[in-house]
Structure formats: structure tokens, C-alpha cells
Amino acid sequence: MTANFLKRKEENNWNINREFSWDEKNATEGYPKNMGKVPRKIEFDPAKQSEFRINFVKAGLEYGLDMARRFFKSWKDVADFKDVLADYTDKDTLERVMRDWSEDYMFGYQFLNGCNPVMIKKCMEIPDKFPVTHEMVKDSLEKGVTLQEELKAGNIYIVDYEILEAVETLKPNHYLTAPLCLLYKNRLDQMVPIAIQLSQTAGEESPIFLPSDNEHDWMLAKMWVKSADFLVHQLVTHLLKTHLMSEVFEIAMHRQLPPVHPVYKLLKPHVRFTTAINAVARERLISEGGVITQITSLNRAGIDRVIVSAMKTLTYESLCFPEAIEARGMKDVPKYHYRDDGMKIWEAILNFVFAVVEIYYDSDEKVQGDEEIQGFVKDCHIGMQRPHITLNTREELVKYLTVVIFTASAQHAAVNFGQFDWYGWIPNSPSTMRKPPPKQKGTVDMKFIMESLPDRGCSSKAIGTVWALSRFQEEERYLGDYPDMGFTEKPVKEAIKTFRKKLGEVAKEIKRRNQGLRLEYCYLSPDRIPNSVAI
């Protein structure tokens, strides 16, 4: 290389890094790094900008408020919530939720295949802070077996919202708790709740609620769990682990990889509009006074506390789909469609990425010697605020790029596009609670429950928000659809064809499977997975 060429390259890199710089001045400590002003080249195009404004601002929030004014006249009964959903009777999943939301099977099903299918894990030993005994739950177990035997057999599961324990709610008449819930895989392979504690500290003022308690105690306990789940889903599973991680990948890609680099071409479709949508989220959703502070118990300081706490346990390995499933002990749980479909998509992406990487890297040494790739990975980990790693083999490069693509496409689809299905019916997943959790059993009735649920304004904003967030674009680009991909090489085009063919086969498999289900699972069907985080 000539001295002039190297000089021009250094100047070009300096200009790119200046344009795509980490926002150090306004950074929130403990968050992933992000950008300040969004560069023009990655802003929404006019069509996306117009569609977003229509869907989110008008059809979402304003529609919800209009419906509230027209229909909400009282909170005397749960049935009052049906009026606000009168125009959505064609949603099969939502209709089933409205009908069966209070049933234990429906409550448990959502931890496997609802909006937040990543919290549940196998429980091999009851934690000291949750002193459930066999006597408490024996009526919920199969006859003749003990709790200890079912623990050993791998039939007991747990969800723990410890991340919310130290989060303060400073808003009047809004409450938050950090519950624990024990679940049981019964002989019908249903996942059903068998014990709920509404705090992280056992004691007389933190009773363990059971299915054998009166119906109002048990109903309210489940509502508290789902309210906590709503919050953790929105801030951790959805915002942090798909939106903010994908933004890190996008910025690092622009900073470190030139447009002619094959990995730049591979990743570009999967970061489209991500930084732009996140800029909107920071302004309208998680800001002080934003939508999240309006529909939940948290102010901006509380939001920060949750995300910063989640960041402490976030690792590269936790973004790897197979490792995440394994870590929670969920490899063999029946009817876990999120896992089954996710593994098929993961393998399809992995094989596609391998085919592309193999074309450009004929040895591990080529990976080791690619300074731009190593710079990209290092920058990703700077953005995550994690110790950086070095990629030494083609296999490691393939896996890393699979994580980037899967996070932006499949994982986001799995935790985003079902929001209206599962959150549209407010009693199923209240976004906040207006009364404190009961400290004794037998003290609540239906009137108390209705007074605990979000009020009219909060409910309408929550419904409008999840409706808007669940929309697909009119001209959505789904996984495998790459109209702007810059590859011209025939082997890559063949790899894309093979990838599309495999995705088509997976979509057919999912469709056949769903025909035999009472409640179909479509969120990871390839024809419903957008390429990137763009809503």
C-alpha cells in the first residue's frame, strides 16, 4: 500500500468514527453505549417516518384514548374492559386470552409461549427465600408424589423477579413488588402455578398464595406476577436485549467495517432503522414523562435502575439462543414452541452465515488477521461495556454473526409482535397496580381487585401502545428478503437462495404444527420475522 492510500484510509476512518461516535456526554451510566444525533444515512426513510407516525401516534395512543372516552364508564367488573376491545374480535389469541385469562393453564402457558418466554427456568431446589413445603402444594401435585420427588424429576419450574426488589416507586397510588412463582408441569404437560410469594422476603407479612386459597386471593396474586412480568419484559427482554443490543451492533458495524466488507453487506439488512427507532424510544417511551412512565409504576430513575441491574448479568453467552435455553434447564420441556421454533431459525441462520463466511475466509488465520472484523467485535463489546473478545476461528465468527442476526430478527419478533395478543386484555397483564400487595390472606374481594387494576387513562394508553408496537410495516422486509444486499458473487446468491428455501420449509413445518394446537404459535414463523429491529 502507498503512503497516500494509507493516509486516505485513516482520514476516512476518522470521519466515519466521528459521524458514528458513542454518545459519551449524554450516556446513562450502566447502559449499553448509544449514539447522540442519528446520522442522516441511517435515519428513517420518508415512507417509514410517515407510517410510524400514523401507527404509533394516531392509531395507537389517540385511538386508545378515544375508545376510553366512548366506552369506559365504570370499573365495576372485569367485563368493562371488553368494550375498549370491541373492534378487535378477529384476533384469535386475544379472544382466547379474554376468555381464559384467569385459568391457571393460561397463566402458565404464557411463560413458555407468551411475550416474555425467557424468565422461566427449571427449579431443582426450593430457594430459602421462598419456603414452599409439600404440605402447601400437595393438592396441586399428582396423587402419590411429593414435592421433593417432583423437584428431582425435573417437573418444577420457577420465575423470579428479584431484579425489581430494590426498585422504588415514587409515584402516588402506583405499586411494584418483586414476586416469585413456582410452576408445575402436570400430567397433561401443562405448566400451572402452584405457589406465589409477592416479595423476596418470606415472613408473616408476605404469605405464600396457593390455588387452594379463595379465588380472589389467587386471582390477585397472579395479577401481581404478570404485572411484574410486563415490566421486566418491556425494559429487559425487549428494550435492552433486542433494541439496545442491536443498536450497539449497528454502530460498531458502521464504525469498523467499510461498505465493501462482506460482513458489512451481510449485517446491513439486519440493522436497518434500528438506531433511528431507538432514538424515538429514548424520546417518547423511556424518557421522564414518556409512555413507560405513564403506564407503569416507574419514573425514569426506576427505569434506569432496572436496566442497569439487568446489564450486570448480561453476557455475550446469554445472547446465544442455544446456550440461553440450556442455562435455564429448558431443553426438554414439552410444548415450548418458542424454543422449538427458535432453534430451527437459529440453525437456519447459522448455516447461512457459515456458507457466506466460508466463501471469504478459507482459513482461521484469515479471521485472525482481519483487523476490521476484530475491530468490529472489540467495538461491540465496548458498546456493551463488556470485556472484549478476539475471534480466532471461522466457527467463532459464524456464531458471533449469528447472534447479531438472530437478536435483531427472530428474538425481537418473538418478544415484540405478540404484545397486543397478550397485553391487550389488561387484567391478564396489568402494566401497573394501584393498591399495595396484600399482606394477609382473605382480605381482598373483587372490588379491591378492580381498584388495584390500572385506571381508565392508564389502561387506554397501555392498549394503544402495545397495539402500535405490534404492527408490521406495509412493505415489511422479512427474514431472507434482501433487496438491498450488496453481494454480487454467485456463491453468495446461491447461499441466499438456500437460506430462503430452508426458511420456507420451517414456515410450512410451523403451519402444520399449529393446525394441531388449540392456541397456535406464529411469532417465530419466518414469514412473520422482520429482518431488523425497526418498531
Helix/strand order? HHHHEHHEEEEHHHHHHHHHHHHHH
Distance between the termini: 43 Å
Number of helices: 20
Average per-residue pLDDT, rounded, comes to 90
The biggest sheet, with number of strands, parallel, antiparallel or mixed sense and barrel status, is:
5 strands, antiparallel
Strand order of the biggest β-sheet: 1-2-3-4-5
Structural class: mainly alpha
Q: What is the CATH-assigned architecture?
A: Up-down Bundle
How many β-strand runs?
A: 5
Question: Given this structure, which CATH class is correct?
Answer: Mainly Alpha
Low-confidence stretches: 1-8, 59-65
Strand fraction: under 5%
Radius of gyration: 24 Å
Shape: globular
CATH topology: Lipoxygenase-1, domain 5
What is the total domain count? 1
Q: What does the model show?
A:
The chain has 535 residues and is mainly alpha-helical. The protein has a single domain, classed as Up-down Bundle (Lipoxygenase-1, domain 5), CATH 1.20.245. Helices cover 51% and strands 4% of the residues. The chain has 20 helices and 5 strands. Strands 1-2-3-4-5 form a 5-stranded antiparallel β-sheet. Helix 2 (46-71) runs antiparallel to helix 19 and helix 13 (337-360) packs antiparallel against helix 20 (490-515). The longest helix has 42 residues, at 215-256. The two termini are 43 Å apart. The relative contact order is 0.15. The model is unreliable at 1-8 and 59-65 (pLDDT under 50).
Short structural summary:
The protein has helices at 3-19, 46-71, 92-100, 104-113, 134-137, 147-153, 215-256, 262-267, 274-284, 291-295, 300-311, 321-327, 337-360, 364-368, 371-384, 394-416, 419-423, 446-452, 456-469, 490-515, and strands at 121-122, 156-160, 180-185, 191-197, 208-209.
